[in-house]
Amino acid sequence: MADNKGVMILAEVGDGKLAAIATELLGAGRKLADDLGEELSAVMIGSGVGALAQEAIAFGADKVYVVDDALLKDYRTDSYMAVMEKVAKEVMPRVLLMGQNSIGRDLAPRLAFRLDTTATMDCVELAIDPDSKMLLQTKPVYGGNARAIFTSESMPQMATLRVKAGEPLARDDSRKGEVVNIDAGLDASAIRTEVKDTVLEEIEGIKLEDASVVVSGGRGIGGPEGFKDLEELAKLLKAAVGASRPPCDNGWVPDTIQVGLTGKIVSPDVYIAVAISGSSQHLAGCSGSKNIIAINRDAEANIFKEAAYGVVGDWKKVVPAFRDKLKELLG
Amino acid sequence: MNMIVCVKQVIDPEAPPASFKIDTASNSVVPPAGVPPVISPFDEQAVEAALRLKDAMGGTITAVSLGTGLLRDVVKKPLSMGADELVLLEDSAFDGGDSWSTAAALAAAIKKIGEYDIIFCGRQAADWDSGQVGSGLAEILGLPSVTLAKKVEVTDGKATVERVIPDGYEVVEVSLPALITVSNELGEPRYATIKGIMAAKRKEPVVWTPADLGIDTSQIGVAGRRTKMLRLFQPVREGTCEIIEGEDEADAGANLAKKLSEAKLL
Prior knowledge:
- The complex is a heterodimer.
- Chain A is α/β, with parallel strands linked by helices.
- Chain A folds into 2 domains: 7-190, HUPs (Rossmann fold, 3-Layer(aba) Sandwich); 208-330, 3-Layer(aba) Sandwich (Rossmann fold), CATH 3.40.50.1220.
- Chain A has helices at residues 20-36, 53-58, 77-91, 104-114, 224-236, 245-249, 280-286, 303-306, 315-330, and strands at 7-10, 13-14, 17-18, 40-46, 63-68, 95-100, 119-123, 125-128, 135-141, 146-152, 157-162, 178-181, 193-200, 213-217, 240-243, 270-274, 291-296, 309-312.
- In chain A, the strands form 4 sheets. Chain A has a 7-stranded parallel β-sheet. A 5-stranded parallel β-sheet of chain A has the order 15-14-16-17-18. In chain A, strands 8-9-10 form a 3-stranded antiparallel β-sheet.
- In chain A, strand 14 (213-217), helix 5 and strand 15 (240-243) form a beta-alpha-beta unit.
- The model of chain A has no long low-confidence stretch (mean pLDDT 95).
- Chain B contains 8 helices and 15 strands.
- By secondary structure, chain B is an alpha/beta fold.
- In chain B, the strands form 3 sheets. A 9-stranded mixed β-sheet of chain B has the order 11-10-9-12-8-1-6-7-13, sandwiched between helices. In chain B, strands 2-5 form a two-stranded antiparallel ribbon.
- Chain B folds into 2 domains: 2-224, Rossmann fold, CATH 3.40.50.620; 236-266, no CATH class.
- In chain B, strand 10 and strand 11 (168-175) form a beta hairpin.
- At the A-B interface, helix 4, strand 7, strand 9, strand 10 and strand 13 of A face helix 4, helix 5, strand 9, strand 10 and strand 11 of B.
């Protein structure tokens, strides 16, 4: 146990760039490593990803382990498991972090069991206890109704970090670091799943994650037609359209625009929640917004507890007048 | 097709947020009065995924649930939906576990059940939102796993799974036996039928203790935990919402536009 040292993060690469979650993990990991007085390393897995190692250093890594292999071009549970097991056993980090996204959700728990340790999923805060030097892992539980702080004594102490919960450092290209290549040593026949196809459901307009204004609708919108009204408002505001879970589960809008614990996490400047009651599981996806604006018929709705401004009323009456007035003011 | 579905009894996540209470002295959640527990919703969708395969190609479904104080009306839900058998791991030794000890106990039960083609789990439980037991089971049992499924079909001894990714889905093929975790995009679980409810009433669950599983009690429940919970708390909500009024609802909407424009938010 005493041999485990340093903080390691999984630095995901997407579209030939360091993914946003990687910079967030590097930011969070840098702080932990400094508090421990130990090294921050990044693991970069993929095909032709080596060129991005310097970028991970610019965002805070002291050392980058690059595992480059044609078999690692796309994420597969078995291939990434084999690589992470190898790297973790070789480097023996004290702390190992990944993002709470489609890779981390799949990889972290399974890797934890293989390494005979445990992971805390979906953390929103990570800190080093000044006395014990243990990793304090804070995560929302019960759909966001409560938070719990966990520690674990088995090494490495693993956690996944919620998207946008980590603050990236400013890029500094003068930072120095070491790049270490590790051979993947993969056996193609040990990869038991095959991805036959990837189907992307393209959403028109601005991406939810990138939008500075989001207009979101809930169960109270009542059907797909209502979302057309929200789209019109969104167009005026150059905003993206989101939804809470019920409209997605009812098929009114695509699943890919769901904001919440099991959907996307957004943190725009302005989040306009229309006919959304504000369940904890929805708030998990939008509570990082700078300003929440609520329009809801029920004055007791939970969303008003989170909102900066609100109107109590039927969205069908409120939204058109809101839109017309905005058109005039922005006009 | 032999299928096993792991289901967990939890405090109803749809209970009003105001009813959610914590006992800080014991670091535990106080079950809300008058709101009965439910099967965790993602687990119900896992049952639905298994039932769809059973509808298409026949087979048996065994539901497995671990906990204490399991209400028969609640944990029999998979039976009333159409599952064939119910195994309960109900013993105080199983209590207070984390993902590690829960997976260890479930894996032992699944080995005892024996034959299976697919093990289904929900993507995460509605209480601790951890989402680890499925992948942990696959690891202990040495099975391939596919997480976050929204559709599962089986042909020629292989499952084709639509796996949810942020902007769509992947079509993943996996050889069987395999473990699959199910996400809400699978769609609404079916209602229990009257016939199903009657059959479930008559069916007695099989109850196994740690001794039945041949598992050492140091591996399960509180004793088998790898994580320690230091604190459980409710984040404080500020609640300083400025309610914008008007002569009527439309006027309030127009006033909201003015307010947001003055505040330079839009």
